Amino acid sequence: MTLQRSGGRRGRAAKRASSAEQTFDAAWRQWKRPYPPVEQFSADEIESIHETSLRVLRDIGIKVLNDEARGLYRSAGMTEVDDKIIRFDPDALMALMAHAPADVTLHSRNPTRTQTLGGPNVGITTSAGSPNCSDLQGGRRPGTHADYDNFCKVAQAFDVIHFIGPVVEPQDVPLGLRHLHMTRSIAALTEKIPFVYFRGRQAIADSYEILRLAHGLGEDEFPNTCVSYSVANSNSPLQLDGLMCRGIIDAARAGQMMILTPFTLAGAMAPVTIPGALVMQNAEALAGLCLSQIVRPGSPVCYGSFTSNVDMRTGAPAFGTPEYVKAAFASGQLARRYNVPLRSSAPTASNAPDAQAAYESQMSLWGALMGGANLILHGAGWLEGGLTISAEKFIIDVEVLQMFAEIFKPVEVTEATLAYDAIADVRHGGHFFGTQHTLDRFETAFYSPLLSDWSNFENYRDRGAMDTTQRANRIFFDTLAAHEDPAMPQDRLEAIDAFIAKRTQEGGADIEQ
Amino acid sequence: MTLQRSGGRRGRAAKRASSAEQTFDAAWRQWKRPYPPVEQFSADEIESIHETSLRVLRDIGIKVLNDEARGLYRSAGMTEVDDKIIRFDPDALMALMAHAPADVTLHSRNPTRTQTLGGPNVGITTSAGSPNCSDLQGGRRPGTHADYDNFCKVAQAFDVIHFIGPVVEPQDVPLGLRHLHMTRSIAALTEKIPFVYFRGRQAIADSYEILRLAHGLGEDEFPNTCVSYSVANSNSPLQLDGLMCRGIIDAARAGQMMILTPFTLAGAMAPVTIPGALVMQNAEALAGLCLSQIVRPGSPVCYGSFTSNVDMRTGAPAFGTPEYVKAAFASGQLARRYNVPLRSSAPTASNAPDAQAAYESQMSLWGALMGGANLILHGAGWLEGGLTISAEKFIIDVEVLQMFAEIFKPVEVTEATLAYDAIADVRHGGHFFGTQHTLDRFETAFYSPLLSDWSNFENYRDRGAMDTTQRANRIFFDTLAAHEDPAMPQDRLEAIDAFIAKRTQEGGADIEQ
């Protein structure tokens, strides 16, 4: 059941979690930020960003490359001008945004893993969408179905991961069938809340059908039960392409959460100034979010922030930069302005799971979490600006996430924790190690690390001087080896497999539709 | 003059900074935290910690192993009981604390490097006090005078380092002469504000005399010009030893800044609970800080926080832990309760300059900086809980510090930075790379990294796949090779050398006195 690692939480952290097993640290599964969010700008400055983005939407507009979406916008009081451009009426837009819910509850098959996002609640996803994966043994390589399953299994083991992304692209599965197998793997191997790609009407419908079967929901129940999340990236600057429009519409009809994330890299697809990049992010986010509310008022949505900057010498995207941190703080202010949950991320541009990867991802994570993000995408495993998911980085990130889960736990101040009696007992020059006050608490007093090595140099050296990346590699594969599928009723799995067989026979999905 | 690295700040960051050279980014030399501090506890809870620490001081007291210090305490209304224990009158103690200044200005020989601590102002020091040093070429080894000088030279090159600690113990210099050569090296090789060890009356006086000569101050001017800082560690629990008392008294008489830092590792020298460890930290800090105010009301002091926890399985100290972060947030609240500057740190327990070192130090740093610390000790180079200073870790830390200096810079929200016109110009699906708005700003828009590699995987691989630690090694030694001593009047250096020759002839200092 466990990795046979000593120590309290260290063992439990890597333990298989099945629906039959109800022992877990609730605070690791349900994060609540205990601190007020850090603010980058004054209220007036945020209002200037808001007002400027409304001006962009009103006077410049968004190019919308889908006929149905343009029709929906027109039906809600927006204006279509030449060349597929929708111009937005600010009052109509804000009236639509008022329908967007402040909190979204996403259901897991395991009720202890159901997540509510919004306010101080925070959920974490794995890295998502990488074409490549890597580990110390196999190096960097195109992802396969087997790699995809491996990352799903390891994600299932850690309670601080709440959502699962498309961890790596299974490039050995034909494109038209890929969504079927990706969704089945997530449903069968994990209890994490799954991501559904916006890869066309058929692929979305197939994915939702597999999730409906996995949850045992009736066709009428599914659209009122949010069990998945998707990301629509606007095509910055100021465009919504056909696939994204299709996804926004279909997710809203199906009652599934849609995150509108503009890909606003300052200096490239967005202005070189942080306020300017935020104006563009905000305009695109509002345009996409309000489309969901036109389709179905009250449908679950999330404001997505991914604003970062590029290296101005090369154009390469950068993450975890000072500019990224400031944009993350400001994005929290903007999402709260509209009273919707905020999605942020924990990315890095590093090519290796090394010190740079650790400090850039942690910069991103502090910016996101202290800025008030409710959902951290790419929380574990991301490397190379998303081109690779790394086994070792995954474990490094899990360690940092576990530390954050512990930071977010409140500390009680009571007569017992103030410890006057213990201090009076030990007095001058003594030691607290063996006191009753310590013995009563030592097992749970402190976070016990999964990965960090706190031994002295001599012990570290004598054990082979394994650095953090090497230790992370071992933990990843030990965790993988310990995986057992979480329980799922046999008839549900059979129904899923029958559905996949039928859809395969039909030729899969047309991804471009 | 530069490292011949391309890019705006990248070159300048590693540039030799002499007093003749006045081109620098003022925001890197004078950090101001733009965010309100993060608070761990409610005001009531902080008051409970305060009140409990006063109860500890009143009813249990502090063991004070120096006759003069006990006499000073008695003269200020405190009570001596058996076994050298001083019990504190809370009202008298708080009246003394009211004399402690809210801000301390520490003077550099180069006025652009003079630092004021307190309020939102933040200063950074190098790592300090390690017996060992390490780099990839030479491995881990006992420190020498040459190593000491090398770290001084590299520290001088980076504007985000404001203070210099005793970077590594020069073990090849006899103990009684060591302070003379350490102080001379700092004075001659750097313009950073120096640390003075509390290693007995003679060593302190010698160090102050060298600094007086370096600054060209008269004997009457020196005690009114703060040019150095020292740390007195209480011998937790609840003891002040002879050397520390001696230092507190001598620093106050000389007008030099004294940081009272309790070494309160929860579960070992302090209670296993965070509130209990903070009670002990606070009691010891107040006891030491008020001694300075008895000696000389208004003398410059700083509240030192180093509360962390141990690994309860082994007793090994741990740093950058969730508990460390919470204690750092809370310590800011306590220091502000007494209106004195706060010292915190950026430590790690890692044995290698790897991912663990990066994520633990950054956890510490975020806790310290967002908690409101004014002085970050061990800001660059620390490894192994302080047993080693690492060349590579030094550069990794400088990179993270530079990122923080940039995060702390305010962002202007103006019509120009909101960039409406640039957005109107680029419109849908265009690119901002070549716009005038970008061209006007691209050179200074974003932080340009010293160490981080943002190139794509193919370029990274083709350049030898050097990881962050290997790149940091190269930057350290390139920076060292580019060092030139900052200007100092020749007569001052001659006076210092004559003084050192005289004190050497006299046999140096008796460190135990």
From TrEMBL, chains A, B:
A UniProt-annotated Pfam family: MTTB
Region: Disordered, residue numbers: 1-21, 110-140
EC number: 2.1.1.-
Coiled-coil spans in chain: none
GO molecular function, one term: methyltransferase activity
GO biological process: methanogenesis; methylation
Keywords: Methyltransferase, Transferase
Listed Polar residues bias regions: 110-135
Superkingdom of this protein's organism: Bacteria
Family, as annotated: Belongs to the trimethylamine methyltransferase family.
Record-given protein name: Methyltransferase
